[in-house]
């Protein structure tokens, strides 16, 4: 393989991928303390992955310094030491562990210092960090002053800039979207300004000499205090809109549990509503009927509750009643009045209500809603009560003076309410919700004045505010107001008419459970002034405990610039940057359209002191780099816009990024994009085209997983990587031209070693095709041109196809290393799976493998009789099988028994079997890769999951097989 003109970084050679993916997946289940709880952003990258990728971008691979680490063995020892550090670095509990973070910072500083000295740029500052044990202060100062800044031009939710800051680096977080810019300001720009400062509220000032405030704790305490003041003030103004429910004798009739509560007033947790439409049956006289997707209130075992529509067809009326216990017809409760996709049944006449009719009625403004049930807090948990006229009347309040009457994008793929006439943001909220949200938004200004006054009393200096970089009383009051305004966004997410009621957790669910705004027919309205889910109190507590307290808690760290900028403009970049970014994924997420939902509330709350950020009525969209056909006039036009735009962005990166470090680019990859041509999807292919055309060569690809951690080990699950990290270098201006034939020759020559290293690193079979793109595209993109036989340029799609073919050839060649029985079984499996075939066909195949059908059957993997032959399924394999006593043990048999044991008896039993297999165990894993590929192509999903699960579980089996759990992580991945 050709020598590179640069010093390779760790990410260009190897990463402890399994440890990184496990830590990334685990983040999905972490709520308290995770910065993502501060404000929603879609498709946010895991912090663990961003931290590890940045570390790998900045730290030299040992092979870059042969004088320090002579020979492969010494380099591997040093590489393993760095892996151990990464494995500790990505653990969530170590996010603010100063020992671990400082160790990572030291490695980064030393790599930079070695390079500067070798290039003749070193000075005393480099010597200082290369000493045996430099102080943390010395390292932090070096990184803040000498290390190049890290720039994410698509900063989004802020994961990459936050982790750059954590690693002690200067960070630039830019984004076109003002909501993303504000998130980054709140995550990484504001907290350092006030780190270590005490709170200014009167309550905390009384104990100023007693408590020490670290990091952003003082700021968080003020957010909590003044947020509570907002709640109390809101209660004075609108508390009458959230009355308790008085339990009546009628409610208690037939419900013994309510007998002792008659006459008592109970706090409402939520009101549950159903949309209604006039019955299409003329005989019903235009009476409205409910559109309900489910009648369940509680599915909790032993506490089941549901809504039952009580219908009087003769009178043409109906009402809702709350029932408890197990329903006689659970299916009817499950489906409500819904009979199909967008279709409902009329409760008065049993007529079908088709989608077109509902859409027409909605666009005419004739959809209504009706209270379905009331959820209250009882002495021993939630109680479900029927609706009352008084409670419904209270909710029908006049609209406030201001409402967000802005139309949202008519994007039917992601935002469907407009189809039913709900075409403005104001129409997505009930009148009570609008009144409450406007009230809280108005209170942000009052809070800002109150904080400013208290800050002046606490001795904070005058200044010009946040936009001018101030850190005094005015800037501080604006900072507190910013966090409270972001909490209002979370309040809006949980308080609109698109929030479902969750009958298992028994609470409202937020609108943005996914990257869309879907229509909801029956919805939950939370009591914002209560202390239950969806209330201001719980949201404020979550922001206080989970996000703000956690920020700026590390010592050291560097300045951060969060700013609005268009990545397609060269002015958004600064020469000499290290670029690590997570750009939009073709057409997967309409960020600007979705974030308008939050922007309207942020603008109302914050525009008075952040006028530059909130200068437009809605989020800028014209130059947003997303391939949206509805915005750009069609599919071809949107693809062209994305391709040209992404190419411009990457050209800007090529023009400004430092040559000393590779560029890391994250790209989402969906399993549905894998087809007969490998990984040649529209979005993926378009992105790679832009990368190549901009002047980059790809030096590696790393699949990163964000699935739940429980899916990662031995559960037969398809833990597909949700994104790929591309590692890129600028292609030399004198890069050579090559031909198709030479490209294929280079693939055959160089790809096998890289693929073996990936297998050794335990890349999951489901990720193998994506991971192979790295070394394959490295060959393709290091050439200025690859010419077809007719002289035309080879396309990226063709290159991907050839890389995929090379992967198939590699896996097929591995088959030659298997025993004859296994090779017979593999070939038979490819055509028949576990189905029967003719004996003659099997015998011909067996002879070609130098075995006989009788011999393979004797080995215990085949059944033969009555002229038919078939492979035994795993369930048919003997429970008492002992490999030590098997006189004809095959790799096929070993693989199937490993999977059977893993699925039926668990990891420890499978590890014991792996140990007893000895030298046969490794080839069994290789066979799993081969069989997974076959199953994927044949669309044998369940069987594919079994082979993927074995490989994913392999590191744990290795640990258990030796009955120890060393500090060292699992086997590592390599890209050569």
Characterise the protein shown here.
This protein has 976 residues and is α+β, with helices and mostly antiparallel strands. Among the domains are: 1-170 and 570-582, no CATH class; 245-396, no CATH class; 816-974, no CATH class. It is built from 31 helices and 29 strands. It has a seven-stranded mixed β-sheet, with helices on both faces. Strands 6, 7, 14, 15 and 18 form a five-stranded antiparallel β-sheet that branches. Strand 27 (862-865) and strand 28 form a beta hairpin. The longest helix is centred in the middle third of the chain and has 27 residues, at 431-457. It starts with 13 loop residues before the first strand and ends with a strand.
The amount of helix comes to: 40-55%
**Low-pLDDT segments, ≥5 res:** 670-680, 706-721, 964-976
Average pLDDT confidence is 88
How far from one another are the termini? 9 Å
Number of helices: 31
What's the main sheet like? 7 strands, mixed
Helix-strand category: alpha+beta
For the CA atoms, what is the radius of gyration? Answer: 31 Å
Q: Could you give the count of β-strands?
A: 29
Which strand-content bin applies to the residues? 5-15%
Shape: globular
State the strand order across the main sheet. 19-3-2-20-21-23-22
